[in-house]
Amino acid sequence: MIRITLFEIGSFLLPFALFLLWRRLSSRAPDAGRMPTLRLAAAGAASAIVMMLVLIVLDANRAGHAGERYVPPQNVDGRIIPGHFVPADDDGDNAPPADSDPDDPQ
């Protein structure tokens, strides 16, 4: 648990450390005051938009389609079967037996 926490804290602090390193190195450069701020901001905004579009496309490809039903992950005989989509008319593994009454406790 401590390793995961340290990894998350390190992941959070890494951009700040890289920024401070960049500031230290760029302050020694002769033209440190003339940074292309507008170009950098536009490049960052474009990168963020592209990343959002990629995530939307990936999410849409993994989602089910009309007429499909999601079957959650299951533990069958010690094996984990990942969640998947099946046709809605398919009963699947989660359907109760046909001869049992859902309102009748056993």
Describe the structure.
The chain is of the alpha+beta class. A hairpin with a 2-residue loop joins strand 2 and strand 3. It starts with a helix and ends in a 19-residue tail after the last strand. The chain has a two-stranded antiparallel sheet. The protein has a two-stranded antiparallel ribbon with strand order 2-3. The model has no long low-confidence stretch (mean pLDDT 77).
N-to-C CA distance: 42 Å
Using the alpha-carbon principal axes, give the shape: elongated
The class by helix and strand makeup works out as: alpha+beta
The H-and-E topology, N to C, reads as: HHEEEE
Strand content: 5-15%
Structure annotation, total helices: 2
What is the share of helical residues?
A: 40-55%
How would you sum up the major sheet?
Answer: 2 strands, antiparallel
Strand order of the largest sheet: 1-4
Rg for CA atoms:
26 Å
Keywords, please?
alpha+beta, two-stranded antiparallel ribbon, single chain, 2 helices, 4 strands, 13% strand, 106 residues
